[in-house]
Design a protein that fits this description.
The protein is α/β, with parallel strands linked by helices and 161 residues long. It has one domain: TIM Barrel. An 8-stranded mixed β-sheet has the order 2-1-8-7-6-5-4-3. Helix 5 links the parallel strand 6 and strand 7. 29% of the residues are buried. It comes from Neptunomonas marina.
Length: 161
C-alpha cells in the first residue's frame, strides 16, 4: 500500500501484523513491526526489549491505556475500519495534544477526501489502499485553503484568527 509522509510517497520500512497473522505465527520478524494494541497489552514483557515498535489501535481499544504507554512507541497506527467510523480523528488529536513525538499513521479506509482533515487532527503518515491511490492524491493536503475549525497546528477557530 502506498504510504504518504510529508506529502510524498515513501517506502514503508514497517511491517504491520494483524491478530490473525500473529496467531498463525507468533514469532515476530526482525526489524520495525506494528502490532495490534491488544497484542501489545498481552505481551508487554516480551516486547519490552524491542526498540522499533509500533502499535495499531482502533476505536474499540482502551485509549486511556494507550495514552499511558504512548512514549514507548515509534509509530501509532490508527485503523479506520469503515468510512463512517470517525473515532480515529479524536484519537489522533489526543495523541498530538499529549505531545506524542512519533509517527501517527492513518490505516484502513483512508481516502483522498479525508486527508486534509486527518492532517489537521495530527496524522503524520497515511497508508492508502492500493486500489484507491493515484499520484494526484497528494494535492488533497492543499485543496482547502481555509479551515473553520482549529487544528493541531493552529487550535484557534476561524473567528479567533
Amino acid at each position: 500500500m502506498p504510504l504518504l509522509i510529508n506529502q510524498t510517497v515513501v517506502t514503508d520500512e514497517w511491517v504491520r501484523l494483524d491478530a490473525d497473522q500473529l496467531e498463525a505465527n507468533p514469532e515476530l520478524p526482525e526489524g520495525k513491526v506494528i502490532v495490534p494494541f491488544t497484542y501489545f497489552l498481552a505481551n508487554q514483557d516480551a516486547l519490552a526489549a524491542r526498540e522499533a515498535l509500533g502499535v495499531c489501535v482502533n476505536g474499540d481499544d482502551d485509549i486511556v491505556a494507550l495514552r499511558e504507554q504512548q512514549q514507548r512507541f515509534a509509530v501509532i497506527a490508527i485503523d479506520f475500519p469503515v468510512l463512517r467510523d470517525g473515532r480515529g480523528f479524536s484519537i489522533a488529536r489526543y495523541l498530538a495534544r499529549d505531545g506524542f513525538k512519533g509517527q501517527i499513521r492513518a490505516v484502513g479506509d483512508v481516502s483522498r477526501d479525508r486527508l486534509g482533515y486527518m492532517d489537521s487532527c495530527g496524522f503524520t503518515a497515511y497508508e492508502l489502499p492500493e486500489d484507491r491511490f493515484t499520484p494526484e492524491d497528494v494535492a488533497a493536503f492543499t485543496e482547502m485553503s481555509v479551515n473553520y475549525q482549529g487544528s493541531v497546528a493552529d487550535p484557534r477557530p476561524i473567528f479567533r484568527r
